[in-house]
Design a protein that fits this description.
alpha/beta, 4-stranded mixed beta sheet, two-stranded parallel ribbon, 8 strands, SGNH_plant_lipase-like, glycoprotein, SGNH_hydro_sf
């Protein structure tokens, strides 16, 4: 299966396998900001209505009413919200008690909006280990007391864990509330932290050093020189690095993550991905 075409790509789009409404840097809040989750959902609803209107006129469309009903709706968002909160120096307790519930409220609202507009199959991702990103590790600190055994920031990963714990609970409740819906939650923190902690077993040499960036070890990340910016440096073999640019993972690391996701080992319930091809 090919990559999904971006919804906003005007030329050459092919929606026969689905559509991608994700935008780089998108978050859940503020909800009226361009390309926030709420806006993405509204774009989907417009896309669906437009497709069905054209189909009703006899035009051939890649997705019909049955396609929208039986499609798998993948939701993966929230890490940018968490990252922004900590970068803005929001106190940890406030992130846990206020920000995370607000973020998850937006995700829950998105799922329910899609459901009441005909969606029934959902695959929801938790967030990854924020405290293992070179971008976060490169921020100045007075000492290393907050680093865990694998060199990640314990406080940020604790927030990621709490985010996922609450998101999993929301998914559990929605399964009982939304009749006929199938909602799979996947723990990306467990998948990605295992990759970092046991990186050599997966063939990686650098778990916390960005392949593309500036500054060299230990993180090769600079807040003044971004990847592909003036003066940046890229590694020779990205397949040996877990992290690409301080925030995103390399293709090699993402391949491992994708395989773990598709295995359903880290999912609740543990439905095989192929289940959604037969519903």
């Amino acid at each position: 299966m090919s990559y999904l075409s971006p919804y906003l790509e005007a030329l050459g789009s092919d929606f026969s396998n689905g559509a991608n409404f994700a935008i780089a840097g998108a978050a859940t809040m503020p909800r009226d900001r361009p390309f926030a989750l709420h806006v993405q959902v509204q774009q989907f609803l417009h896309f669906k209505q437009r497709s069905l209107d054209l189909a009703s006129r006899g035009e051939s469309m890649p997705v019909d009413a049955h396609g929208f009903r039986d499609a798998l709706y993948l939701i993966d968002i929230g890490q940018n919200d968490l990252s922004a909160a900590f970068s803005s120096r929001v106190p940890y307790d406030d992130v846990i008690s206020q920000r995370i519930p607000a973020i998850l409220s937006e995700i829950k609202d998105a799922i329910m909006t899609l459901y009441y507009n005909g969606a029934k199959n959902f695959w929801v991702h938790g967030t990854g280990p924020l405290g293992c990103l070179p971008q976060k590790l490169a921020e100045p600190r007075t000492d290393d007391s907050d680093l865990d055994y694998n060199g990640c920031l314990k406080t940020l990963n604790s927030a990621s864990y709490e985010f996922n714990n609450q998101l999993c609970s929301i998914c559990d409740k929605l399964r009982t509330q939304l009749k006929g819906a199938t909602i799979v939650y996947t723990d990306l923190l467990a998948i990605k932290y295992d990759l970092i902690a046991n990186h050599t077993g997966y063939g990686f040499e650098e778990p916390l050093l960005a392949c593309c960036g500036y500054g060299g070890p230990p993180y090769n990340y600079s807040f003044n020189v971004s990847c592909l910016g003036p003066g940046y440096r890229a590694c020779e073999d990205g397949s040996k690095f877990v992290n690409w640019d301080g925030v995103h993972y390399t293709d090699a690391a993402n391949a491992v993550v994708a395989a773990k996701i598709l295995s359903s080992e880290f999912s609740t319930p543990k439905l095989p991905f192929g289940y959604f091809c037969n519903t």
